Amino acid sequence: MSASEQSAAEEIFDIFNEDGLLLGQAARGRVHVEGLWHKSAQVFLFDQAGRLYLQHRVAGKDVCGGLWDMSVAEHLKPGESYLEGAVRGLSEELGVGGIALKPMGEPQRTRLDQPEIGIRDYELQQVFRGSYQGAMVPDPVEVDEVRAIALDDLATWVRDKPEDFTPWLLRDLSRYRILPAAQAT
Question: 65-88: string of b/e by CB count within 10 Å (b at 16+)?
Fold first, then answer.
């Protein structure tokens, strides 16, 4: 295990029951192995032309490494609000700030079981939407590449190669009706 993977496994999360009641804290590695509920914030970030910024996760990520994901997906630190986590994620993952974010509905309970790699990712997630125009400085430990893509082009890509994307991106593109209705999968 690399130093960055070791550090990530030791990261501490607040843990909750399925209804969002705080139960205590646990290390990230334990949280993902045991399927303990924890919180995360995701951001759909658009440019002025309406294109969606996607990030390509580094291959070494413990969950869905090497796949395309929403603009930002950030685990919350202990005591952090969803909005605080989203803002921090924009800064840490993409190197951007000063973005007005709007929640997209209420927080959702989501589960991703990947028994082949020993991961049970159970999250209470809040999704936000924002817009940004300007330079980004992605964190190379987290992000291989950032790409802005027109929604029609993304709909075609998702239809033709869904295996290129994280399961939660595919789910949330549909859940939040991001893609043009005629082309959404």
Answer: eebbbbbbbbbbeeebebeebbbb
DSSP structure class, residue 145 = E
Residue spans of beta strands (DSSP E) within the chain: 12-16, 22-27, 37-46, 52-57, 68-69, 72-75, 102-103, 108-114, 119-131, 143-149
Domain boundaries, the chain: 3-175
Block means of pLDDT (10 residues each) for the chain, 185 residues, are 48 95 96 96 97 96 90 96 98 96 95 88 96 95 96 97 95 93 52
CATH architecture of the region 3-175: Alpha-Beta Complex (3.90)
What's 60's DSSP letter?
Answer: T
